[in-house]
Amino acid sequence: MKVYKTQDIRNVAILGHGGCGKTSLVEAMAHVTGVTTRQGRIEDGNTISDYDKEEIRRKFSINTSVVPIEWKFWKINLLDTPGYLDFVGEVDEALAAADGAIIVINGKAGVEAGTEKAWEYCEKYGIPRVFFVTNMDDEHADYMKVVEQLRELYGKRIAPFHLPIREDHKFTGVVNVVTLKGRRFTGDGKWEEREVPDDVQGDLEPCREALMEAVAETSEEYMERYFDGGEFTVDEIIDALRVNVNEGSVVPVQCGSGTLEYGIEGLIETCVEFLPSPIRDHIKIIGKDPRTDKEHNVDYDSRRPFSAYVFKTIVDPFIGRYSLIKVCSGELKSDAVIYNYDKDTEEKLSRIYILRGKEAIEMPELKAGDIGAIAKLSNTSTGDTLSLKADPLVIDKFEVEAPYTYMRYEAINKGDEDKVSQALQKMMEEDLTLRVFNDKENHQALLYGMGDQHLDVTVSMLEAKYKVGIKLSKPRVPYRETIRKKVTVREKYKKQSGGHGQYGDVAMEFEPSGDLETPYVFAERVVGGAVPKNYFPAVEKGIQDSVGRGPMAGYPVVGVKATLFDGSYHPVDSSEMAFKTAARQAFKNAFVEANPVILEPIVSLSVVVPDGYTGDIMGDLNKKRGRVLGMNPTDKGKTEIVADIPLSEIYGYSTNLRSMTGGRGSYAYSFSRYEQAPADVQERVIADNEKAEQ
Ligand SMILES: Nc1nc2c(ncn2[C@@H]2O[C@H](COP(=O)(O)OP(=O)(O)OP(=O)(O)O)[C@@H](O)[C@H]2O)c(=O)[nH]1
Ligand SMILES: [Mg+2]
Q1: Confidence of residue 521 (pLDDT cuts 50, 70, 90)
Q2: What is the predicted pLDDT for the residue at 498?
Q3: How would you class 199 by CB atoms within 10 Å of its CB: exposed for 0-12, middle for 13-18, buried for 19 or more?
Q4: What is the mean pLDDT of the chain?
Q5: What does the pLDDT look like over 297-309, one tens digit per residue?
Q6: Distance between CA atoms of 38 and 282, rounded to whole angstroms?
Q7: Cα gap 522→513, rounded to integer Å
Q8: 561: part of which helix (H) or strand (E)?
Q9: Using 50, 70 and 90 to split pLDDT, how confident is the model at 635?
């Protein structure tokens, strides 16, 4: 592939609801521009983007894939993202490299939760966008209805650039609102010009009028001309609308079919004509020289020294390790020596690539703004900046949403633990929304992801790629045990069997320490050497050993103060061992007397949903023993509900929230404190533990 100049590159993320037709669209764009000789199909598992075995098996995208296509003078790097919410981390990665976006909508399903999410993402990152209504070959697809839905949500900015032509109820072509020309699709992505049919006129006029108004608003001269009844040339219209689209004040809507390759070239034209090259006026990309803390506008300036941003890492035992980069300034040559300031490593390259799906294509160089890949940078991770040692640069890392769905995991085969943890380590390098946590206190390893499907896919990938099996199970809630009352106990441990005996005798007080953060505090006020000083550590060790597993249900004990105040010893038989055992028994006996309780973790939860759902969410939180503390309106018609809720109650909340809001809600929580669990919960926890021990 030839080396493209910055101005001739478009980096376009393909966004939209799960299953709306993104990958099929990308496949069509690749086929129409000659990347492939045969169009791949999801059903046949042979698309360029969905090359991963799991994607083929499940028939949906899991990873963001880069598919560069060339058309006339331009190269478009398409970033095909997964639509399912569980893989949203991949969308963040794609948007870290994109300068524009195509939001795909299924013409039959209309605007869905994923469409709105995609829009919110573009707003968040300031990315100019176009809508593509696909699936128009379906007889139930309704383009104008989709346009209406979009207008209702986003107002006047929504501007159809194309209108569909139907003949005999079949979608056969489009009318271009900008050029006022018609196209008839003839198959294989081709088309021929045709006249504008009469039945489109009704929709065409208001759409054209709205576009002309938008054009007029771009300058005073145009405004005057518009009011004087003057016309604009096609070039004038395109130039004016380009500014609008880049600002986001005009969002084009077009239509077609991915599988039939209808409307594909029109979409490619729109990408190159209206979506920006990496050099965008209103978005600056700032890098910092870490030596001086001085900030620079790197802005894809080819005259500046080389810098690049790692937006994604692929770690795959079959494909290898690739760091996907976007060159932010200068240019990258295949023999460059690059420097990673974050990791303080310098590496001499021998090859650079561009990736197309899983295929790596070697390149001699990459210009600023282009997307490429470097193999085997073992010290470099997603979010790092690459630069030159003489001109180090650091660009802020992008953030991904934190995962809140978690399960306990275990290696299926004992002895595979190391293999599992190494494999997970590799998967976490690829996937920033996957995390593991070793919960030592509760003897469990936890796997965190964005939802159940994410965890399920992770299990399959471990098996397919790393040949290790893990089993997921419901995590143990980190309950704790404590006491509420002060008690005194005396415990004598005495054994006289043959030779050397055992003798340890302690009198101890146990009471709440008031500090639920610490397991125990130990004190002594022994008088007259009733227990010799050298046995105090053994007594404390006895307590320390006991707090790991509480007497009620085996959960860690917190908040106990243990005071040794009396006892006795035997000059020959006493030993550290004996005092330790006595202290352990004292602890156990005292605990059950001291009004023991089970504490449960409470988290502060924040749920953000469109206003219409707040009632349902609050009702559900009440059922889950949540205490709603506040409701804060956020911008754009959403409300944040803040509540305290027991951690045990929000197990599975991601699925719950999705079904209540159709995927329009989001949530986050953080640990707040421990509170005494209600009696029925305590009983259940104790019963569960007894069952588990049987
Ligand atoms: N009839 C028709 N079917 C389509 C069209 N586009 C996609 N499909 C079908 O819709 C299904 C989903 O298509 P994909 O391309 O995988 O959708 P996606 O948006 O990439 O899905 P995710 O990656 O999972 O979000 C597949 O069965 C496609 O064959 C279209 O234009 N017309
Ligand atoms: Mg897909």
Answers
A1: very high
A2: 67
A3: exposed
A4: 94
A5: 888 988 899 999 9
A6: 39
A7: 10
A8: strand 560-568
A9: confident
If one residue of 17, 23, 54, 117 were mutated to test the ligand 1 pocket, choosing by the most ligand atoms within 8 A of its CB, it would be 23
Atom of ligand 1 nearest to the CA of 41: 29
Contact 296, 287 (CB under 8 A): yes
pLDDT of 198 above 80: yes
CA of residue 628 to ligand 1 center, whole Å: 41
Which CATH number is associated with domain 286-395? 2.40.30.10
Confidence at residue 579, expressed as pLDDT on a 0 to 100 scale: 95
* Alpha helix positions (H), 84-128: 88-97, 113-125
- The answer to whether 286-395 and 599-693 have equal CATH topology is no
Q: How far, in whole angstroms, is CA 282 from its chain's centroid?
A: 26
pLDDT tens digits along 7-61: 999 999 999 999 999 999 999 999 999 999 999 999 999 999 999 999 999 999 9
Ligand with the closest atom to the CA of 141: 1
Domain ranges of the chain: 7-209+248-273, 286-395, 405-473, 480-594, 599-693
Q: Does domain 405-473 have CATH number 1.10.357.10?
A: no
The CATH number of domain 480-594, selected from 3.40.50.80, 3.90.230.10, 3.40.50.720, 3.30.230.10: 3.30.230.10
Contact indicator for 411, 469 with CB cutoff of 8 Å = yes
Q: Which residues line ligand 1 (CB under 6 A)?
A: 16, 18-24, 42-43, 60-61, 82-84, 134-135, 137-138, 257-259
Token pair for 534: 């050298």
**Closest Cα to atom 6 of ligand 1:** 21
Superfamily of domain 7-209+248-273: P-loop containing nucleotide triphosphate hydrolases (3.40.50.300)
pLDDT value at position 282? 64
The bound ligand whose nearest atom lies closest to the alpha carbon of 19 is 1
Closest Cα to atom 1, ligand 1: which residue?
A: 135
Residue 675 has pLDDT above 70, yes or no: yes
pLDDT in tens, 379-437: 999 999 999 999 999 999 988 999 999 999 999 999 999 999 999 999 999 999 999 99
| pLDDT score, position 595 | 96
Atom 32 (ligand 1) nearest CA: 135
DSSP 677: P
Q: Are 548 and 520 in contact (CB under 8 A)?
A: no
Measure 106 CA to ligand 2 centroid, in angstroms.
13
Nearest CA to ligand 1 atom 2: 135
∠ Cα 12 17 23 (to 5°)? 55
Ligand 2 centroid vs 16 CA: distance in angstroms?
Answer: 9
Mutation test residue for ligand 1: of 259, 260, 267, 454, the one with most atoms within 8 Å of CB? 259
